Amino acid sequence: MGKLTEQAGMKRKGREDLMEDLEAVNLAADWADISQGLRKDLGQQLHSQWIKPIQVGALDRDTGTLDLYLPTQFSADWVRDRFSDRLSLAWKIARGEVRQIAISVHPGRRKVADLQLHSDGRRPANDGADPSMMAISADTLNDSGFTSSVGLDPSLTFAAFVTGEANVLACNAAQRMAAPEKPQFSPLYLKGATGQGKTHLLHSIGHSFLQAHPRSRIFYCSAERFMVEFVQALKQNQMIEFKGRLRSFDLLLVDDIQFIIGKASAQEELLYTIDALLAEGKRLVFAADRAPQALDGVEPRLLSRLSMGLVADIQAADIELRRKILVSKLTRFAPLEVPDDVIDFLARTITRNIRELVGGLNKLIAYAQLTGQEVSLQLAEEQLTDILSANRRRITIDEIQRTVCQFYRIDRSEMSSKRRARAVVRPRQVAMYLAKVLTPRSYPEIGRKFGGRDHSTVIHAVRLIEDLRTRDADMDGDVRSLLRQLES
């Protein structure tokens, strides 16, 4: 009897542990969404210094209190004073059972005394401080509080940046900008939608430039943070110091430049800074979600400076690039295996941006590890419903047939005809292959859309095109072009 009771208790504890693990996964997923939103609101610099180090603790369902932890007392007090209301509201929106948040030092972390500035503007030695909170180097904070150089994310390097047709120009331009020799163009303007790799390239430039010029000075910030620093210096009558420090950098990296729209005084200061740095042969890189000409409310002189160098466009990643990115991320999870059909499914359905794509993979693997399940297509469909539904654009077989016929210049009726000429059969087989890859339709359903053909005919076509893509570069190129057209 005692053994049965003990076994029952162990099973109950196992279920409780599993529920806690699942709760942790869900909280982590919610925090990823909240953190991404705060990054857009606050800018990269503030987010990296204060929001990114936050660790999500447990949720007390009785009181509705969610614990948020930071590595030092200084950082906990700072976040509580400045971001508590914003964090609380974001969590209440994301998860209704959260009624309040509690911000404190992570249990087990040694508390560090509040940081004080010496009269010469340097921080005292801060033994035991968490590295993620030491983004500002020892000599980068003056009496006005102006930050001149921030820590770069060590994971965002050129080696970790996966290239394809969509981003190879921007990547090559970024590498040229970071190279030891003087670049042929400056400034470099990176243009791309959210989550396509602009910030990754900015950090990569910083890392590579520092390797080539170890004693150089770099300033990385968002345009929004630039304006905050500018206004603070203006209010404190420290504009001379602000200008002097800003123009002393060897490399200026400004993210989300679209957020400087409409700020006339900040625009003017940025314009003078660009002119001063360019005159001294310094390097400048800007990133935005739109081309310079599409920046409404920007002064014409500043517009001309932003576009006078090279504007490198980062296109939306095609399915091949998305697949390559997913495969590159799998090395972090070895020896866990992720089947090819799961990789293909994620690459095919999560198309809005790379950040969501990698986030979906991370969430799926975390869930599988915590629950002891194997990663499978069924698990992906069950656990990523929100991400998948937000990304899924329904491509129809009719749309595929129309696109293939235009590409190969054949009549639409040939998709259902009985003709066996090679000029007709191959495009028809390509269309069947694309219908299987891009739609959820079964083989029999696809066959019916192609003149009532048997499902075995569709299977043969799909396998044939798959094989031809590995052996025939022209066929692979045709399929890639059609995929880009259909997914755009």
TrEMBL record:
On whether Nucleotide-binding is a keyword of this UniProt record, the answer is yes
Question: Segment Domain I, interacts with DnaA modulators: which positions?
Answer: 1-113
Q: Which UniProt keywords apply?
A: ATP-binding, Cytoplasm, DNA replication, DNA-binding, Lipid-binding, Nucleotide-binding
Cited PROSITE patterns: DNAA
Annotated stretches, region: Domain IV, binds dsDNA: 369-488
- What are the subcellular locations of this protein? Cytoplasm
Keyword Disulfide bond part of the UniProt annotation: no
Q: Where does ATP bind?
A: 195, 197-199
Taking every annotated instance into account, which residue ranges of this chain make up the domain AAA+ ATPase? Answer: 184-331
Q: Where is the Chromosomal replication initiator DnaA C-terminal domain?
A: 396-465
- One family from Pfam that matches here is Bac_DnaA_C
Q: What is its main location?
A: cytoplasm
Q: What does this protein do?
A: Plays an essential role in the initiation and regulation of chromosomal replication. ATP-DnaA binds to the origin of replication (oriC) to initiate formation of the DNA replication initiation complex once per cell cycle. Binds the DnaA box (a 9 base pair repeat at the origin) and separates the double-stranded (ds)DNA. Forms a right-handed helical filament on oriC DNA; dsDNA binds to the exterior of the filament while single-stranded (ss)DNA is stabiized in the filament's interior.
Q: Please quote what the entry notes about the protein's domains.
A: Domain I is involved in oligomerization and binding regulators, domain II is flexibile and of varying length in different bacteria, domain III forms the AAA+ region, while domain IV binds dsDNA.
Could you give the subunit structure recorded for this chain? Answer: Oligomerizes as a right-handed, spiral filament on DNA at oriC.
Question: What protein family does this chain belong to?
Answer: Belongs to the DnaA family.
According to UniProt, the name of this protein is Chromosomal replication initiator protein DnaA
Q: What organism is listed for this UniProt entry?
A: Qipengyuania benthica
